[in-house]
């Protein structure tokens, strides 16, 4: 991924999060998932794709990797996401969104545990 792609994706991601609560309907395809690549199914949300986006050196350089991951864990926490955003998702897409959010959280938890296991943590 080049710098321009990452910066554009990060900008879109931040913009989506700043307006998501104001949306009446949130569709799976319209949710800004934490990757540079397009997400069509939950399985697209791999640890590597999420890590290369969240931990990219092209944005948020003022935050440590651990702080970046924690920020995203708070954002995607199932209780928070389910309470604020899931009611806006059409019923026929809720299971897919719930599953995708689970993939995001699992990947972020894996990244935070890798950070804890690092001798430099």
Automatic annotation (TrEMBL):
Could you tell me the superkingdom of the organism this chain comes from? Eukaryota
Q: Which GO terms describe its cellular component?
A: nucleus
Instruction: Give its localization.
Output: Nucleus
- Where it mainly occurs, coarsely classed, is nucleus
Q: Which GO terms describe its biological process?
A: negative regulation of canonical NF-kappaB signal transduction
Which keywords describe this protein according to UniProt?
ANK repeat, Nucleus, Phosphoprotein, Repeat
The answer to keyword Nucleus applying to this record is yes
Q: Which PANTHER family match?
A: I-KAPPA-B-LIKE PROTEIN IKBL, NF-KAPPA-B INHIBITOR-LIKE PROTEIN 1
This one is known as Uncharacterized protein
Q: What taxonomic ancestry is recorded?
A: Eukaryota, Fungi, Dikarya, Basidiomycota, Agaricomycotina
